[in-house]
Amino acid sequence: MSEHRCAKRIWSHGGFNGRACQRPGVIEEDGKHWCHQHAPSAVSERRAKSMEKVNAAIRKESNEIARRIACLAACAGVDDPQPGELAALRAEVARMKERV
Ligand SMILES: [Zn+2]
User: How many CA atoms lie within 13 A of 59 on its CB side?
Assistant: First the structure.
């Protein structure tokens, strides 16, 4: 068992001073002791994984927009086989572009 406590201070809504993490400081980084959750390297790793998920979602959405734009381009000048369907697709693509 480590004699050190984790150096992380945990802030909560309405608190003025925060409180110290109560877990043992078992990892030493940047001259301080940290628990497995709050070690700067662990925090960086979690953030990187989280950002990768966000980037993957953005790539997926961008690919879907590109696919729909290509679909619209392929249908350019063609009469709408299902009345309203192309107009609905154009409106949906416009909404998706606003989100990106
Ligand atoms: Zn901690």
Answer: 6
